[in-house]
Amino acid sequence: MDDPTLKLSDSRTGKSFDIPISNSTVRAMDLRQIKEDPEEFGMMTYDPGYTNTASCTSRITYIDGDKGILRYRGYPIEKLAETCTHTEVCYLLLYGELPTQSELNNWDLEIKRHTMVHENVKKFMDGFLYDAHPMGMIVSTVAALSTLYRDAKNIQSRTNRRLQQLRLISKMPTIAAYAYRHSLGLPYVYPDPDLSYTENFMNMLWRRAEPKFQPNAVLAKALDVLFILHADHEQNCSTSTMRTITSANADPYIGVSGAAGALYGPLHGGANEAVLTMLDEIGSMEKIPNFIKEVKEGERRLMGFGHRVYKNYDPRAQIIKGIADQVFEVTGKNPKIELARELERIALEDDYFIKRRLYPNVDFYSGIIYEAMGFSPEMFTVLFAIGRTVGWLAHWEEFMEDPERRIARPRQLYLGSSERDFVEIDARLGKMQSERP
Ligand code: ACO
């Protein structure tokens, strides 16, 4: 059979085109030859929000949004969450294969070696007000690491990139814990190498005067699973930001800082914080119908619902819902869980949500668990960022090795004025203020 093509005919010129199809995709540049006039630029696609544009090829994460499937490097998320540790999944995402036991031991040891941060980081932290949002502190502090690790500029060296990846994965929990302790006015706690990645994070967050922090095993496992569930999600807003920033050859600290900045937004990683705010506002079961009515009338959104890719139950939300009860056994029940379950029940039976295929996403239940563990809503996105750091870095690594790598630079469809005669300042009077931009 001939190579598959998409046959296009342009009614403006009567010309026909055979556009090659590969992996059910056509190359946008193949459309450029389609012109009405030889002088014109050529055809482009218009895709606000990139809803149907593949910006890269990738071999890291597979999602089937219709079926609710998520796999890292081919392995189902359910199996990884049940069996692996977060550091094991980090290795898988970065290196493409699950580690052997000795590889994992070495990897964990390497991570432990890099958990300390430069003492200057404490000074950066001290500069923030006590009520600064921890995501703001993290975005800024990670960017500041770029000034401490100037070798990170050597992005062409794979060995060097591996070192920066290790540093970022290792230091992210330390920076996050510093931000948390700063908000509470508590002294910073140094990493404890006897503990696992997630246990040590708990130690840096919650250790008080005791000589050795004893993490609760159930909470440590739950938090570790949450990190795994958040570790990667292909070309989401923050990962695309990471790729965009590093496409200009910026170092990975600047890239991760920018990606974390995108994650901070309430339509992305900030949604779990917004879910809690929403549940607080609703307050009680009787108020749910009125809230749903407001959502359907377009006055507000049901936060934690809907997803650009999943048009089915987000598999991560399913796993999180499952671990909620284990966490509540330790912490006591978060009363918001009943409210959330009722919201979900009503929404899933309602035509508005059914028609638009809106289901709970990863953020719907995660915040309730985090709150039960004692985190304030401001910390939720921080926890997301710790888990997602490896995803950003795996995409950076893949991008750096991509022979088709180019600086990210989308086109625009210019619909503004054509050339106008310049108006001198004295002659501009008389134009209505409302007509001005
Ligand atoms: N509540 C109510 N209506 C919704 C919601 C929601 N949460 N999400 C989408 N819709 C409606 C839209 O109003 C729109 O309706 P219309 O066709 O009548 O205009 C339709 O569903 C399609 O929505 P879009 O906004 O076009 O979908 P998009 O793919 O652009 O947005 C997004 C996806 C941003 C996640 C959206 O569903 C949303 O805002 N959800 C709430 C925020 C949230 O939970 N974000 C976390 C996402 S997961 C993550 O980032 C980790």
Description:
With 437 residues, the protein is mainly alpha-helical. The chain has two domains: 203 residues, Citrate Synthase, domain 1 (Orthogonal Bundle); 103 residues, Cytochrome P450-Terp, domain 2 (Cytochrome p450-Terp, domain 2). The chain is 50% helix and 5% strand. It contains 17 helices and five strands. Strands 3-4-5 form a three-stranded antiparallel sheet. Helix 5 runs antiparallel to helix 10 and helix 10 crosses helix 17. The chain is globular. The structure holds acetyl coenzyme *A. The site of acetyl coenzyme *A has 19 residues, from helix 16.
Explain briefly what this protein structure is.
The protein is mainly alpha-helical. It contains 17 helices and five strands.
The amount of beta strand, in percent, is: 5-15%
* CATH architecture descriptor name of the largest domain: Orthogonal Bundle
Number of strand elements = 5
Backbone shape? globular
Query: How many individual domains?
Result: 2
| Helix-strand string | EEEEEHHHHHHHHHHHHHHHHH
Structural class comes to mainly alpha
| CATH third-tier fold name of the largest domain | Citrate Synthase, domain 1
Largest beta sheet: what is the strand line-up? 3-4-5
Write the layout of secondary structure elements.
Blueprint lengths: L4 E6 L4 E6 L40 E4 L4 E4 L2 E2 H7 L2 H10 L5 H13 L6 H7 L7 H15 L9 H27 L12 H10 L10 H14 L6 H11 L4 H12 L7 H12 L5 H9 L18 H17 L4 H14 L1 H6 L5 H12 L6 H21 L37
Antiparallel strand pairs: 1-2, 3-4, 4-5
Helix pairs in contact: 1-8, 2-17, 3-6, 4-6, 5-6, 5-10, 6-7, 6-17, 7-8, 8-13, 8-17, 9-10, 9-17, 10-17, 11-16, 13-16
The chain binds acetyl coenzyme *A.
The site of acetyl coenzyme *A has 19 residues, from α16.
